[in-house]
Amino acid sequence: MAVDLVSKSLLWEYLAGTPEAGGRAVDLVPGFLRLVASRNPGIVFGIDFADWFGLGAGAGQALTAALTVLTAGLIFYIFASADRTRRWTHTWCGLILAGALGNLYDRLAYGYVRDLFLFTLKVGDTDVWPFVFNAADVFLVAGVALLALATLLGPRGGRGGVRDARGDPLP
């Protein structure tokens, strides 16, 4: 969570606000990855509950924060109830919690999440999938993907599980 909050703080200050407000944009990989300051009032992929359900901005933020707290509670439960030998499960849950709490902090402190990295997938001259994210989003996506893989391929699911170099099952 500290990595996310420190990176957001330093880069937000460096970029001096959103491009629309005169802030700078910095090409990291031209045409593919840039640094930009972007305000995201929504949740996953910018889904804004205030717009979806016709709520006011305050009610939408409250719903988003409540869903984040419920999700964090579920992940904490998975973390706490996992077998102590399943260290990787604990690591993946830690990534998810760090991401969720980093973005929750932004929602509560600013009313939006500070996104910084603009990834653009182009096909020809068309932007197919522009996506703005932050370190918390990386932690969330990686944690969810790895936890899902561990669940599907672990010793209790999938086809017998993945094993480490010693032959022990990975969580």
Describe, in plain words, how this protein is organized in 3D.
The chain has one domain. Helices cover 50% and strands 18% of the residues. It has 171 residues and is of the alpha+beta class. It contains five helices and four strands; from the N terminus they run αββαααββα.
DSSP summary, beta strand count: 4
The span between the termini is: 23 Å
Approximate strand percentage? 15-25%
**In what order do the strands lie side by side in the largest sheet?**
1-2-3-4
Number of discrete helical segments? 5
* Helix content estimate: 40-55%
Shape estimate: globular
Largest sheet: 4 strands, antiparallel
Secondary-structure element pattern, one letter each: HEEHHHEEH
| Radius of gyration, taken over Cα atoms and rounded to an integer in Å | 18 Å
Query: Which structural class should the secondary elements be placed in?
Result: alpha+beta
Report the uncertain regions.
157-161
How many domains, as an integer? 1
Mean pLDDT across all amino acids: 83
What oligomeric state do the depicted chains represent?
A: single chain
